Amino acid sequence: MRVGSAVSDTLETVSGQFEGELLVQLEEGKKQALATLAASKREAKAAVTKILDGSVKQAESLRRQVVGGAELEARNAQLRVLENAVVDVFEKATKELAAIPDARYEKALAVLLKEGSEVLGQKAKVYCRQSDRRAVSSAIGKVEGGQSRMALASEPIETSGGVVMTSEDGSTRFDNTFEARLERMRPTLRMEVSATLSTD
Q: What is the DSSP letter of 129?
């Protein structure tokens, strides 16, 4: 009986130790599993945050591109409207200038010639369109109280009106045609049209 009792006691001791070790191992495994789970949660949360941050940045970048593209298109459309308005004004002005009565046109030519002579001197050479030769010749006679020494060139130029003048030696050219005068006014005209469009 004693042997049986000793064996039984030994078995209980071994069984108790085994159970204790098993419980320790289970507890250790549980702790490791919980630590791994916590680490996985942190990594998943960081990954989700990174993806969300990236999505927000990408969405903001896309929004900026769309808004920038829309603003650029609106600006281009505004510039097209502005340029069309300037072209319309130029065309209307050219038509109106071409329809000036002869007496007013000759006075205008005298003003254009005087401006040119102030730049180039009294011996400037004057070019005009073929149909204006008589009016330009008459206007030359009226500049400087009839004392002008400008010479009318025999070669005609293509223009809707006005004159081109050169210095006596031909080294300097002064374009005082209607087209050139309108072109010099273009920047001012653009600002005026732009201001008008902005207030509408």
A: -
Q: Are residues 94 and 2 in the same domain?
A: yes
143 and 115 within one domain: yes
**Same domain for 91 and 135:** no
Could you report the per-residue pLDDT of 33-82, keeping only the tens digit for each? Answer: 677 767 777 877 877 788 877 777 887 887 888 777 777 777 777 778 77
Residue corresponding to tokens 């809707």: 160
* Cβ-proximal residues to 123 (8 Å cutoff; 6+ apart), any chain: 149, 150, 151, 167, 168
Of 199, 198, 189, 200, residue with least CA distance to 84: 189
Could you tell me the pTM of the whole model? 0.56
Examine the domain organization and report whether 83 and 107 are in the same domain: no
Residue that has been written with the tokens 């009016």 in this structure: 135
Same-domain status, 107 and 195: yes
Report how many domains make up the chain: 2
Give, as one character, the DSSP assignment of residue 98.
H
The one-letter code for the residue type at 89 is V
CATH assignment of the domain containing 131? 3.30.2320.30
Q: Where are the alpha helices (DSSP H) in the chain?
A: 2-98, 102-120, 133-142, 178-199
* Residue 56 CB neighbour total at 10 angstroms: 10
Domain that holds residue 162: 101-199
pLDDT per position as a tens digit, 110-121: 999 999 888 888
